[in-house]
Amino acid sequence: MAQTGKRDYYEILGVDRNASEEDIKKAFRKLARQHHPDLQSDDTKKKAAEELFKEAGEAYEILSDSERRKKYDMFGHSGGPQGFGGAEGFDFGRGFDDVFGDIFEGFFGGGRGRSRAESGTDLQYNLELSFEEAVTGKEAKLKIPRWETCDTCHGTGAQSDKSVKTCSTCRGVGQIRLQQGFFTINRPCGECQGTGKIISDPCRECRGKRRVYRERTLSVTIPAGMETGMRLRLAHEGEHGSNGGPPGDLYVAISVKPHQFFTRKGNDVLYDLPVHFVTATLGGKVEVPTLKGSTMVKIPEGTQPDKVLRLKGIGIPSVKNGQPGDQLIRVQVKIPTKLTLRERELLMAFAQESQVLNEQGDGSGLFDKVKNLFE
Q: For the whole model, what pTM was predicted?
């Protein structure tokens, strides 16, 4: 390969000689961002960066073209007897539009114009459920305000096809070319706002906006077992996209009101059951409310405070598989605060028999000792 004092093009881009076209393009994009002159902080750095940028551009100009790359691989920088088919080196204006469009879109506000399809915005609806509704599920009617494609103009923004004209400034491309130093970039056309079209008679329904704001009513099935913090995703029920873009999604965010008696613990339901200390001591049956109606529950003899009894399979169904949890019954032993004379005499006799009277034998602190006895 002939030597001309220039650095090897592959070395400049930092790729090996077997690099693919995509690898070469990625390497050039990286260097272009790094050495772009307009991004340098002072004139000294700017001048050095400009030279590096030109060097990278020359390497990309040759290696991105399959024929030129073959000649370079065979003959080096001279390109052989016929050269590279261009005058003295390279031309920034040729074959760089796609690369520059990606690299410098963010630098200068450039882009591919507003005529490209854009997805609609996702929406969220906050739905509050009662405890029972969350357990059993329900059919909910939701009123969703959103932007929708105008039915009158079908999203064109024009009253009729005749009122849509090609923009004379950009000739329908939606972009105009601007010279930035030694290369050319594209920006959205200011005349047509990047659409490539001029509307002389806007649609009377949407006033040229292509979309209208409407309220849509949706019927949504809320599955059994939902709880606060869960969300349902309804695909394509968000706002409509623009320029033919797909609609967004609708998310239904669930919150559940607290219940007067029940507390949720995963898929189990917790109920605090007040039980008289005599029942807790001797055992018995007590009526207990559940999600499926009342039922009688056996209280074992000698049940201690905060003991948890379990009723299998009458809890909250799982959203994933429908398998129900259990109902948990936490026993709250109640100590009486007022006694009849007869009740007091009986408890005194019990205390005497159980030897829980204090040393003075006057029965003071009796009920604390009775409570401690059960514990």
A: 0.59
